[in-house]
Amino acid sequence: MEKAPGSLSVGGSCPQKTAEILSSQYGINLFLAGLVLTFAWAVHAVGISKSHLLSYLITLMLIQLLWMLWYLCRSCTQRRLIREKDTHAGARWLKCGITLFAVITLILDSFKIGYYVDFSNCLSAAEGIFPVTHAIHTILQVYFLWCHAKDIIQSFKTLERFGVIHSVFTNLLLWTNGVLTESKHQLNEHKERLITLGFGNITMVLDDHTPQCNCTTTTLCSIFSQGIYYLYPFNIEYHILASTMLYVLWKNIGRKVEHHQQHKTPFKFHGITVGMIFGLIVLISTIAKVVVYLIQIGRSKNKSELALTMFYLHAISVLALMCTAGIVALLIYRLEDRSLDNSKNPARKLDAELLVGTAAGSWLLSWGSILAIICAQAHPKYTWYNLPYSILVIVEKYIQNLFIIESIHRKEEKVNDDIKTLRIVTISRGSTLSLTPAYKEIYNGRAACDDGELPYLLSGSVCAREDPGAKEAASQANCPVMHSAPEFPFYSRNSVTNNKRRILKNIAAFLFLCNLSLWIPPAFGCRPEYDNGLEEIVFGFEPWIIVVNLAMPFSIFYRMHSAASLFEVNCKT
């Protein structure tokens, strides 16, 4: 028998906590097994091929598909029941974002299918089944998240915990697989670029996973093989977003929710023109920089050095502007006296943890670069720009994290008692009229009408006493409203508050576009951590490449997650 939402007894909390621990351990072991298999394939372990890894991932996706179908069928049969919802989870803009990434992921799957058809003579069947299964998995998962991301599951809780956590770690493994495949491609290109920069003393062994047979259609094979790697960044973001949304769903299982009205905060372009203009300038210049960088890097030593110098100068300018904007926003917060909302909210807690956790990836790379610059014996001119760039990366994330976390925890501003709309009732010829006067007239009316006077508006500002005998006379004679002394300070304070809010919205819009801009270069192969060569000399080629390959995915995700959080801040401000 199903229990009503929120009616979980004290005695039943122990089994549910046990189920939560068991399901989390199941998910971690599922992930670790896949991680070891992925690592074994990456290092060409004896007896481990790509087909083994893909078979494992296909099995996980099929299990998740069965669970999602079961959940959807059960929800359909119980659609008349009133279900608890977490209003903070699964925001519409987040669903739209994951849908966009999912559509591009489906294009990626179609490219993989075409690639398999062209090389079918020497590829395993798993490489053809995987993109088909992944496409079906993507479609059903996006539909599931659109319909049920806000659910607070109160029935079959033990089973659902295992189903949801299985889905979380399945997406994390698919994310890991995408990151590894894309990183191996970037590493091969990086090794070729280092030769042009003059670092010939580094051992160059290309990691080749290309099929050992001829393509049936050369032109199509080239399009598919090159197009796949340009689409991988979107696939990577899709899976990490899906795993975070599913994790919030898992944390909400059996949760008791306080019932309160959740105000919708739609995004509006009004009042953020300045922030949007500067942000778009940064975005357009970043796209141009990436195009020039990818064209110039690796062509010759001189062109590569110019490309790296251009990258660092542009990044230093953008990061300096972002630091300044963040400091201004924090100063505005210090001038305001508003408390923070410390209520339990899994989605908000996860956002804050992801911001700090994924920022560690960039901090690790930055500290590595700083140490390399200090310890290196020879310093090409372009490497000195890496020092202020690395310092600004650390400082900018400090400031931005503080701004975002404080913004999402701030309580919504309450309406001042002095500007509440009053309901005015007047009696005229036996009829009752409800009038809503302007804020200014209400405020002045309150100041002018004392000793039991009731302010109301009728053909101007009129004051009438509560004396029944005076009501009719008062309805025919107008009493001018006296302007009170506090009128101008009140409106001055209100104007200052509106200006602060407008500045904060512009800062949030500017930082939103800047984070999107800073996501583009590393996501599409513009990675100076690979290309400047200084770190490889100090730390050694293999150790530094391992550090970059581990830290870079978190750095890329940080920018996209920050952009999503700043979009929410803009809506909330």
TrEMBL record:
Alphabetized InterPro entries for the sequence: Otopetrin
Membrane topology recorded in Swiss-Prot or TrEMBL: Multi-pass membrane protein
Pfam families cross-referenced by the UniProt entry: Otopetrin
Gene Ontology terms describing biological process: inner ear morphogenesis
Subcellular location: Cell membrane
Ligase as UniProt keyword: no
Keywords for the protein's UniProt record, in alphabetical order: Cell membrane, Hydrogen ion transport, Ion channel, Ion transport, Membrane, Transmembrane, Transmembrane helix, Transport
Parts of the chain that traverse the membrane: 26-47, 53-72, 93-117, 129-146, 229-250, 271-295, 311-333, 354-379, 503-525, 537-558
Keyword match Isomerase: no
One Gene Ontology term of the molecular function aspect: proton channel activity
GO cellular-component term (any): plasma membrane
Homology family: Belongs to the otopetrin family.
PANTHER family: PROTON CHANNEL OTOP, PROTON CHANNEL OTOP1
Name of the protein: OTOP1 protein
Record lineage: Eukaryota, Metazoa, Chordata, Craniata, Vertebrata
